[in-house]
Design a protein that fits this description.
Length: 151
């Protein structure tokens, strides 16, 4: 199964507010979508001080022009080391949900962790509001509901 197929399958395995295609469209309009044969990522820039529900909802945009200092990873599948190779603007924070709790990590901390890993250790992966860690750097999860892979 390709990473985009893994990502879409998450929507079949847990309750979701929208379909995969609806969330994909929202990220195409309001965020960043990266898809290769080895990785798939849907993310968008948010402000760390936004309310949690605004951070995790891809339909929310900021009309106040608050500086966006965080890249919220909504859904990721495949080789998560590609997170730092796809075209995006580095920022201060990276966020994702894990077990329905919004987590924020320093962009540099996550970058350094992924650089040091050779696939044997856990690397955070985003889910629809849920991030999951996977021992072989491959995952398919979403961040709002339940993780679909162990960690």
């Amino acid at each position: 199964m390709t990473p985009v197929e893994q990502a879409a399958a998450v929507y079949l395995s847990e309750p979701c507010a929208r379909t995969f295609r609806e969330d994909l469209e929202l990220h195409l309009l309001n965020g960043v979508v990266y898809s290769t044969p080895t990785a798939f990522i849907m993310a968008r820039y948010v402000a760390r001080d936004w309310p949690a529900l605004s951070v995790v909802d891809p339909d929310q945009t900021d009309a106040t022009c608050t500086p966006k200092d965080c890249l919220h990873v909504y859904l990721a599948a495949g080789d998560l080391t590609e997170f730092f190779t796809f075209p995006h603007k580095p920022c201060k924070w990276v966020s994702f949900e894990r077990e329905n709790a919004l987590k924020f990590y320093s962009y540099e901390r996550i970058h350094n962790l992924i650089r040091r890993q050779d696939g044997a250790a856990k690397v955070p992966a985003a889910a629809e509001g849920q991030a999951a860690a996977d021992t072989n750097r491959r995952s398919s999860t979403r961040s709002r509901v339940k993780p679909t892979s162990g960690g």
